[in-house]
Design a protein that fits this description.
It comes from Bifidobacterium dolichotidis. Homodimer. Keywords: Isomerase, tRNA processing. Belongs to the tRNA pseudouridine synthase TruA family. This protein is of the alpha+beta class. The protein has two domains: 120 residues, Pseudouridine synthase I, catalytic domain, N-terminal subdomain (Alpha-Beta Plaits); 158 residues, 2-Layer Sandwich (Alpha-Beta Plaits). The chain has ten helices and twelve strands. Strands 1, 2, 3, 4, 5, 6, 7, 8, 11 and 12 form a ten-stranded mixed β-sheet that branches. Strands 9-10 form a two-stranded antiparallel sheet. A hairpin with a 5-residue loop joins β9 and β10. α4 crosses α6, α7 packs across α8 and α7 runs parallel beside α9.
C-alpha cells in the first residue's frame, strides 16, 4: 500500500519539526523541575542563615600593639584576633560568608593595656560547627579553645559565649573602669613594672591630685582633656575618680641583720581609678596629665577647675604616656536592658 508520507517531503519536515518541538518542551520541563528541586546556592544560604552573636572576653599587654583598631601594615589587637578568627571560622562549603569584624567595648590606643576587654562578632551556625573537628565539646567552647591557642602570647582569651539578645559590646556597656599606675619617688622600683607603669622621679602630692580628680565627677564637657572628634561630643559622665597609694609591704628582717621593704610588684604605686559610662579619645591620659601637674606643684587645683569649666583643648593638657594605663573592667546591665541601653547610648550627649 502506498504510504503518502514516504513520498511527501513536506510531511517528513513537519513530522521532524513536531518531534523537535516536543523534545524542546521536555527539556524545558526537565530544566524547570531541576531549578525547583535544586537547593539554594551557598551564597544564598549564607545570606538567609541567621547570624549568631558571640561575646569574647579577653586581656592583652598593649606594649607591642599599635592600639586596638585595625590599621594597614601595623600590628593591632583587633588585627591579630581577626586574622586567627578567619582561619578558624572559614567555611569551605560556602562561596560567601559574613565578614569577620569585631566590635569592641573600648578602643584602646597604642601602648595601652586591658585586663578585661569585651568585643562581639556575628557568625553563622555552619561557621561555628566547623570549629568542633575531633573535640568532644560544643561549638562555642571549641572556638574558645582554638582561639586561645592560636592568638599571640600577649593576648589572652578569657571566654567565648553566645551573647544575649540585644547585646552590643560597645553600646550596651554600662560603665568602663580604667586604672593609671605611676611609680614616683616614694615607690619601690620593680623592673617587672616596666610595661604597665609610668616612672617619674618627682614625689607627687596625692591630696592635691585627689582634689583635682574630684572635680571630674558628674556630667561634664571634657573638651579640655580630650581629642576632638568631628561629629561627636566630649560630654561624658564620670561616676568615680580618685588617687590612692598602694601600701608598702611590711619591713622584713634580713638574715644579715638589716631591714628592707620587699619589692612587691605594686608596692607604693600611685593608682588613678576612673569609672565612666564612656570616655572620649585620650580623655583618661589627659586627665592624668592634669592631675600630675597639680601633684608636682606646677599647676594649682584652681587651674584644673578652670580647665573643667572652659572646655578648650591646648598643649598643657595633652595625653600622658600610654604604658601606665589599663582598661580594668567593662560592666553591662541585666540582659533585659541591653537593647534599650544600646539605643539610649547611641544618642548624642548634651549637658541638659
Amino acid at each position: 500500500m502506498h504510504n503518502p508520507d514516504s513520498t511527501n517531503p513536506m510531511n517528513t519536515e513537519n513530522f521532524a519539526a513536531t518531534r523537535a518541538e516536543q523534545s524542546d518542551s521536555v527539556e524545558n520541563i526537565s530544566a524547570t523541575k531541576a531549578e525547583i528541586s535544586q537547593p539554594a546556592s551557598d551564597a544564598e544560604h549564607v545570606q538567609q542563615s541567621p547570624l549568631i552573636r558571640l561575646r569574647i572576653d579577653l586581656a592583652y599587654n598593649g606594649m607591642n600593639f599599635n592600639g586596638w583598631a585595625v590599621q594597614p601594615k601595623l600590628r593591632t589587637v583587633q588585627g591579630e584576633i581577626e586574622k586567627v578568627l578567619r582561619r578558624i571560622l572559614h567555611d569551605r562549603t560556602a562561596q560567601e560568608q559574613p565578614t569577620i569584624r569585631l566590635t569592641v567595648a573600648g578602643r584602646t590606643d597604642a601602648g595601652v593595656h586591658a585586663s578585661h576587654q569585651v568585643c562581639h562578632l556575628d557568625v553563622t551556625q555552619a561557621m561555628l560547627d566547623g570549629c568542633v573537628g575531633h573535640m568532644h565539646v560544643d561549638a562555642v567552647k571549641a572556638l574558645e579553645l582554638r582561639l586561645s591557642r592560636m592568638v599571640p602570647n600577649d593576648i589572652a582569651i578569657h571566654r567565648v559565649s553566645i551573647a544575649p539578645e540585644g547585646f552590643d559590646a560597645r553600646f550596651s556597656a554600662l560603665e568602663r573602669t580604667y586604672v593609671y599606675r605611676i611609680a614616683d619617688a616614694q615607690s619601690t622600683y620593680d623592673p617587672r613594672q616596666l610595661s604597665y607603669v609610668w616612672h617619674i622621679d618627682d614625689e607627687l602630692d596625692i591630696d592635691a591630685m585627689n582634689k583635682a580628680a574630684a572635680l571630674t565627677i558628674g556630667l561634664h564637657d571634657f573638651g579640655s582633656f580630650a581629642t576632638p572628634n568631628p561629629g561627636g561630643t566630649t560630654i561624658r559622665e564620670v561616676k568615680t575618680a580618685y588617687w590612692r597609694r598602694v601600701p608598702m609591704r611590711p619591713l622584713i628582717d634580713d638574715p644579715m641583720g638589716e631591714q628592707y621593704r620587699t619589692p612587691a610588684i605594686e608596692s607604693g604605686l600611685l593608682c588613678f581609678t576612673i569609672v565612666a559610662d564612656a570616655f572620649a579619645r585620650n580623655m583618661v591620659r589627659s586627665l592624668v596629665n592634669g592631675c600630675v601637674q597639680v601633684g608636682r606643684g606646677k599647676r594649682s587645683v584652681d587651674w584644673f577647675a578652670q580647665k573643667m569649666q572652659v572646655p578648650l583643648r591646648e598643649g598643657s593638657t595633652g595625653p600622658i604616656a600610654p604604658e601606665g594605663l589599663t582598661l580594668e573592667h567593662v560592666a553591662y546591665p541585666p540582659n533585659d536592658q541591653l537593647a534599650s541601653r544600646a539605643e539610649a547610648i547611641r544618642a548624642v550627649r548634651t549637658l541638659d
